[in-house]
Design goal:
The chain is of the alpha+beta class and about 375 residues long. It has nine helices and 20 strands.
Length: about 375
């Protein structure tokens, strides 16, 4: 065999090996792309959700009705908007987004990638989570009405009703549905926020003493709290609570398919504005978020970056953020949105009045970068 033939064979072999390597790399690339497209990830994606004007209308059973209705009191239509903001969660424990969708969300400043365990804790069923979200929304509405009543000087009565005990929880065999919680460690509690704070102060190292009323009789029970499964992990006793209030007049809040407690601040502001002849914000378009307690305290929420982007997309110029969310807000404020931090309902009203009066905005609190 000639040297020329050997060289040609060697070249052919090299070309063949090159083709094989090329096909292998192509196959691996295609497999990788296919995997990114279809293989589930251990994450869910948070996206901006609906932005809903508390002073506007919603559609319930095909009929358009005011979101806030106060049948027996004089109410006033005002220009502008006071909008609650929401977050849509894409994916769950049973149907997680693909890696390709996660990578795309990482590159989108309006979206956030969150571990699935942070949103759907292991051991908590979808039904339990939905029920908790529904009860949180109902409690939020009741707390908002109570905070609004307090703000306008209307007295009311309240009590805490146990709706359900969670399976396997510390309280499961100690309390019952329809029990009314009167005290925690001997101190009266009137609202859900106060109850949670009292249990948190007690901690998990010792039992908490609950004074309850059952079928007209007063009882004392001891329950040792444990840390919650979901973040942030806080002491809990494993009950679903409904705050029941007796208000001087009826306030109806009509809203479907929205859960959780984060609309409380905007509900309270919407109620006050509905009862007020003048617009709180002078007809401006304001959005916001935050839990509310009956005493007017504003608490932190999740997904605030997505909520700010949702507010901008809905045309809001101003945004009210809980002061305890400032770490998430700072450096993430979208262009064309003025964000102010508030810790109480009174502070939120003060911001709106400053906006309405064209006052000095530099005097208002903001989240420092």
């Amino acid at each position: 065999m000639s040297l020329f033939t050997d060289e040609r064979d060697a070249v052919d072999d090299a070309r063949l090996r090159g083709r094989r390597v090329g096909w292998l790399l192509l196959a691996l690339t295609l497999f990788g792309v296919f995997g990114l497209a279809v293989l589930p990830s251990p994450y869910v994606i948070e996206r901006p959700g609906p932005v809903i004007d508390t002073l506007g209308t919603v559609t319930i059973d095909g009929e358009e009705v005011p979101l806030i209705q106060i049948p027996t009191e004089p109410t006033y239509e005002t220009p502008g908007s006071l909008s609650l903001t929401t977050v849509n969660v894409y994916g769950n424990r049973d149907q997680a987004p693909s890696w390709f969708e996660v990578m795309r969300a990482w590159l989108d400043p309006t979206q956030s990638v969150v571990p699935v365990d942070a949103v759907f804790p292991e051991g908590v069923s979808t039904e339990d989570r939905r029920e908790q979200s529904r009860i949180d929304m109902e409690n939020s509405q009741q707390e908002a009405i109570a905070a609004a009543m307090r703000s306008i000087g209307e007295p009311y009565e309240s009590r805490l009703l146990i709706v359900q005990t969670l399976e396997g929880s510390p309280a499961e065999e100690l309390v019952e549905p329809d029990d009314v919680i009167l005290t925690v460690n001997g101190e009266p509690v009137r609202d859900v926020t106060a109850l949670r704070a009292a249990i948190a102060d007690n901690g998990t190292g010792r039992p908490v003493e609950l004074g309850i009323q059952r079928s007209g009789s007063d009882l004392q029970v001891e329950v040792t709290p444990v840390l919650s499964e979901n973040e942030p992990r806080v002491p809990v006793i494993g009950v679903l609570i409904a705050g029941q209030y007796v208000f001087p007049f009826e306030v109806e809040i009509e809203l479907e398919n929205i859960g959780g407690p984060s609309a409380g601040l905007m509900f309270a502001l919407g109620i006050i504005d509905t009862l007020t002849r003048e617009s709180l914000a002078g007809g401006e378009d304001v959005a916001g978020t935050g839990t509310i307690s009956a005493d007017g305290s504003v608490g932190p929420i999740g997904g605030i970056v997505q909520k700010m982007h949702g507010a901008v997309a809905a045309g809001a110029d101003w945004f009210l953020a809980p002061v305890d969310n400032c770490e998430d807000v700072a450096g993430n404020v979208p262009a064309d949105l003025e964000v102010f931090s508030v810790g109480t309902l009174d502070e939120a009203i003060g911001v709106l009045q400053t906006i309405a009066d064209d006052g000095d905005l530099s005097e208002l609190a903001r989240c420092e970068s």
